[in-house]
Amino acid sequence: MIHPTAIVHPRARIGANVAIGPYSVVGEHVVIGAGTSIGSHVVIEGRTTIGRDNRFFPFCSIGGMPQDKKYGGEPTSLEIGDRNTVREYTTINTGTVQDAGTTRLGSDNWIMAYVHIAHDCQVGNHTIFANNAQIAGHVHVGDWAILGGMAGVHQFVRIGAHAMVGGGAILLQDVPPYVMCSGNPAKPFGVNAEGLKRRGYSAEAIAAIKRAYRTVYRSGLTLEEARATLAREQADAPEIAPFVEFLAAATRGIIR
Fold this sequence. Notes:
Elements: E1 7-8, E2 13-14, E3 19-20, E4 25-26, E5 31-32, E6 37-38, E7 43-44, E8 47-50, E9 55-56, E10 61-64, E11 77-80, E12 85-86, E13 91-93, E14 102-105, E15 110-111, E16 116-117, E17 122-123, E18 128-129, E19 134-135, E20 140-141, E21 146-147, E22 152-153, E23 158-159, E24 164-165, E25 170-171, E26 179-182, E27 187-191, H1 193-198, H2 203-217, H3 223-233, H4 241-249
Parallel strand pairs: 1-4, 2-5, 3-6, 4-7, 5-8, 6-9, 7-10, 8-11, 9-12, 10-13, 11-14, 12-15, 13-16, 14-17, 15-18, 16-19, 17-20, 18-21, 19-22, 20-23, 21-24, 22-25, 24-26
Antiparallel strand pairs: 26-27
């Protein structure tokens, strides 16, 4: 399953039924789970741990050192879950000691060509990053979030679960869960209702999320007042709890 032109370090840990294509390189500290497929000309280096049944297409660079001038060669790492699809020319870097020290990509993500996931990013599960989406260091992306093509995300920004970022958008502040946004700088444009329907949210749950959106973005309340209002309402509408938690933890402010 390993092409004769591939270079695999003898101390790399390769699981069962892993395929490694022509001219690919796997480094000393790499762990690759069973059933993973690695195309041609892929480089996987650093302290990188990859789960099961992932697919890496040609010319990916995985586990390279951070593009951070403060990085001094510390043994930081990259962790990738299961069943991810990572398309051509994607780059994913390891972490830095200034943060958690580990960059993470969860499971069941769809990462299209030319995507960059920088040092210390924490990406959840079931996300979609369209072609050339770029996220800077320390960015957090929640489950089921979607980034359109050419979207750019400033460092330390947080993107909530089920959020949708339009193509070409520039994100300078946090995007709460469920919110759709686009533009430069990105502005909110309602709730990702269609995505929620596809994921099994009921009409009542979506209606509650839309009311929460109006409280934050249409009521004229300050952000703290809106958060307090939603905190009182979440007992009757548990779907808005992620909204409340996200607003409480926001450090860069949210898009408004």
